[in-house]
Known about the structure:
Distance between the termini: 60 Å
Number of strands: 38
Number of domains: 2
Helix content: 10-25%
CATH class of the largest domain: Alpha Beta
CATH architecture of the largest domain: 4-Layer Sandwich
CATH superfamily of the largest domain: Metallo-dependent phosphatases
Amino acid sequence: MSRRLLIGGLSAGAAMVLLHPFSARAAANQAHLRIMETTDLHVNVFPYDYYADKPNDTMGLARTASIIDAIRAEASNSILVDNGDFLQGNPMGDYIAYQRGMKAGDMHPVIAAMNVLGYDCGTLGNHEFNYGLDFLFNVTNGANFPLVCANLTKGTLAGNAREDELFLKPYIILDRKVKDGSGAEHPIRIGLIGFVPPQIMTWDAKNLEGKAMTRDIVKAAQAWVPQMREEGADIVVALSHSGIGQQAYEENLENASVPLAAIEGIDAIVTGHSHLDFPGPKFEGVAGVDNVKGLVSGKPGVMGGFWGSHLGLIDLLLERDGGTWRVVSSTSEARPIYHREDKKVVANVGDKKEVLAAAQAEHDATLAYVRTPVGKTAAPLQSYFALVADDPSVQIVSQAQTWYIKDMLKETEYKDLPILSAAAPFKAGGRGGADYYTDVPAGDIAIRNVADLYLYPNTVQAVVITGAQVKNWLEMSAGMFNHVKPGAKDAVLLSDSFPSYNFDVMDGVTYAIDLSQPPKYDKDGKEINAGSNRIQNLQFSGKPIDPNQKFVIATNNYRAGGGGNFPEIGADKVVFVAPDTNRDVIVRYIIAEGTINPSADANWTFVPLAGTTVIFDSGPKARSYAAAVKGVKIEEAGEGTEGFARFRITL
């Protein structure tokens, strides 16, 4: 179906589809407008997990696409938008970026797939910049739909936002016709404006420094939305690649959708970045959010999951007021492509064949790429217990980082400083589900296994910090755990709000975590309990760490640049910037070693608490590894929710 026919036309067979109440009941001066959203696709065109090398019914634009025609048919008027993070995030993305390349005129498979669906507009997410600006714009030049971004500038910021030199148009205004309740057509002007998190300047400094700058999301909106209204936009929709976070405004918020939605002139907001679905249970009790009505700061809002797991839907009942339109009612829904029955994933939809065909050649090439062996492992690489004990999947990353940085610094002024390594588990269940874990058996290791260990195309960096700063780094990481009172029975161990990629394990030191003390820092790095000392018995070379001793820490560009807001960690501490990705370093390390032994060394554990037990969830396959975990005793504790298994630790 042509994009130009989306408004006012129903697909064949629409008579068999139950119309949304707004379409069914609209009066002569009223019209129903449906906004359909995809977000955080991360190159997941196929319902296929390249890391596990098997089909997966929870993902894939081909699945999401298969319901779009029917969902369009439920509404008399509709538009389709993408909210960013489409370009990076799985081995197909890396294959195109690092193996095949993107020359001017080349078509990227995710864009080819999106072009099938008739998008009306899209915006950029933070991961669009992971491969550099030239790569990004070679990709987006192939899109047959416009992309907008109001806060990404060329070079420095201008004196005011309207004078910024932007890479993309800040907004577009679609001139369309809508059918009202009587079937009559009327003109409507729909404004679409996009935003990217300002934190890209930290996360992708190597690609953006000196070339780009970001303006605060809210300030950019305050400048451009009135101009959209001045140009005659009847309805303004914000494409916010920014999560639903705090209500109070602060400059350069990463998750700014709540204060953004509050801006006068914005009628609706599509969100993303957080890999959640809104409306949904994760947003119960969030300030500024109505999880029942699907409102963000009183405006209709939606977040359509990730990897194609949901199609975000905002339905607006519009009323003609003189020569313009206004929103009189709304509903929001994140419609899933799958559900669970008896802990098993069941697909709600099939594939749209045209979408699969658009990326089939690249899918086949990616499979060949990820199956290439690079070495062997003498022990399994699995991450089922990566959040509760020293873990082999994190251990191998640290070993590779230390090996690399030691070689890189051997002729520098830092050659005599001790090297520690910080690494976090990326696949550790959580929002990714009960199968979202690394699980590589002993034997051959292929590129897909390395990509499974290290999901992101981060580059290696090294910082120099003091022993005192090492302790605070670990205090921040310890925010992964809830506060546990001594003597508690089956207290919940893991914090739902703390992301696993910020749970850094420090290799090269030994330490214990005291759960009886509250976290020193919150998930955003703010000190909330200044006197707390969760990190106990921190030692280097068998002796208490010297707070003044200097250490080199091998890490990645995200953390070294301030990502995660770890205390006192930022670009001013960086002493080495590698040209190599962490993933490439792991591959080189495995090739150099031939056979690796990734066994965890239990360099961290919990402080014993008499009579205290805690529980946590992991994947069902974790049961076969529980007995081998070092440093803690893990026992089964029944079934968790949504397909997870539950485990207990006696402290």
